[in-house]
Hints:
The complex is a heterodimer of chains A (275) and B (263). With 275 residues, chain A is an all-alpha fold. Chain A contains eleven helices and no strands.
Amino acid sequence: MSARGATVARTIATLDIPPRPGCQWKPWCAVGLVAIITVITLSPQWGIDFSLEAIARNWQNGAEKILQLLVPDWSFFPRTVPALLETLQMAVIATAVAAVVSLPLSLATARLTNPNGYSRRLVRAVLNVIRSIPDLLYAAILVAMVGVGALPGIIALVLFNVGIIVKMVSESIEANDPGALEAGRAAGGNQVQINRASALPDIMPSFINQTLYVLELNVRASAVLGLVGAGGLGLLIDAVRTFYRYDQLSLIILEILIIVMALDLLSNAVRRRLV
Amino acid sequence: MTVLTIPSRRRAWGRSTAMIIVGAVVIGAFWSVDVNWARLADLPAQVMHYLWLMFSDPNWSKVPEALGQTWKSVAMAWVGTVIGILLSFPLGFLAARGFSPAPVRWSMRVGFAIIRAVPEIIIAIAILSVTGLTPLTGALALAIGSVGTLGKWGYEAIEGVDPGPIEATRASGGNIAQILRWGVWPSATPDFISFWLYRFEINVRSSAVLGLIGVGGIGDMLTSYTQFREWSTVGVLIIVVVIVTMGIDAISGAIRRRIVEGT
Lengths: 275, 263
């Protein structure tokens, strides 16, 4: 008893502050690396030539223009209505089509709902490529293919959305409890029946959530797709920017702001009811 | 013997009304939009035709120039991200509950929300009257855009921190700066670094797009060659963009996974 007490006492006496976890130099190395890359990217011959000289030169004239942003030209409103409507139509249509297309694709890219390795990897690889091209580049190329208007914009948005929805939803399938799927298999269901009966109800909330998120993204994206001729507000933005009508640009920005925020409130309300 | 009955289905009026509204909006959009759907019929043929033009005989001689321009885009994204981080880091704290008074907090949050609602390319258009058509404009637009998302994720991460260490630091007499350093920073670091990297990935994609308004980089090159309809070059540029974006995503994703898993 007393011998054990002595051991405990000795152990306590020799207890030291534990050594700091990890190496101390690591964070500083990372900071150093970031600083070096930043200096390189800022240098005139290697990077983007971060010179404030132009800003100083344009300040007087530019500041006036930017101040115009604070005074929207309300009389411009009637002209923006058709473009605004087209932007909304494009966003809604693209979201609906993308949602329909991505539901089966998300089931096809998750391991739990598609045990076939080859088809899964193939679909994933294609989607990875699709996701790495920005929506505006799709729009620029599609405008050349099918002509100007809302159609290339809608197709570009669909491609862009499918990449996002499928990735998020298939990740949420992987995170789900496989129990229900195993029960379906044990009851003798084939893969389609299992997915329909147990995977689908599980992923519905995350699927609706992503679809709402994509709708928000689409309103914002379709507002700029017009810059390459793909319809919507972007066409107007392109027109007012060439004339430096910043008071009109300001009204357009304000409209996008209001719609995005309204959608944000709406989707938050829906999300709260889902959870 | 007790008779087991199947529980009756819940009547979901709310759900069916929602479905009807959604259906009506979608059908309304399809019906009213000014699109010649007939053009969709020859879209597959068109796509094959253009894919053939782009990738059957790629103009590889443009690769060095494309890589140079891509580097410029990536540099733009990097500078934008770094400036965005420097601006959003303190602002994130100002927007977090428990670190600043409510009026400051809410004005910060509204500010972030406004920035998030405006596409970067519009920010670039708005500031280019001061900064001119230079890559710097692109970087600054990306920086402002980054502040919107990084600020939001920042205050969410700060508010999500386990309150224990914060209380401990306060109890042992730490001031605000010390609470941030010892109570918040150690547990929020993985989150912060992870979403900084994620924002860099987003900025790389956006920087390619910013070229459309002429601030330079790969987007500039892509727009002009698409307008000249030099498809063999466009094909090469797309290949370069895809490979570079996927490469950067892979590297940044690997770093993020290591940080989140805590190695």
